[in-house]
Amino acid sequence: MRHMIILFLGGGLSMIATDFAKRIKALRAATGLSQEKFALKIGMDRTYYASVEAGKRNISIINIKRIADGFNVTLEELFKGM
Predict the structure, then answer these.
(1) pLDDT at position 7, please?
(2) What is the pTM of this model?
């Protein structure tokens, strides 16, 4: 039973990362900035940001806030619709 819970939680976290990735990719596309230029704007390494946007990172709240600030949105607005 414990293994089933861990697998379920793992799948749920993966979905959150994927949803977050789609959201920030759409927001970045709306700005017209490349990944490199947006990452530079927020003081983040481009390869790290690209992996977040690809849904491959478990990102910290500090970096989530940095991304929100880069888009000039609140954390609530960043997660809206997810």
Answers:
(1) 37
(2) 0.82
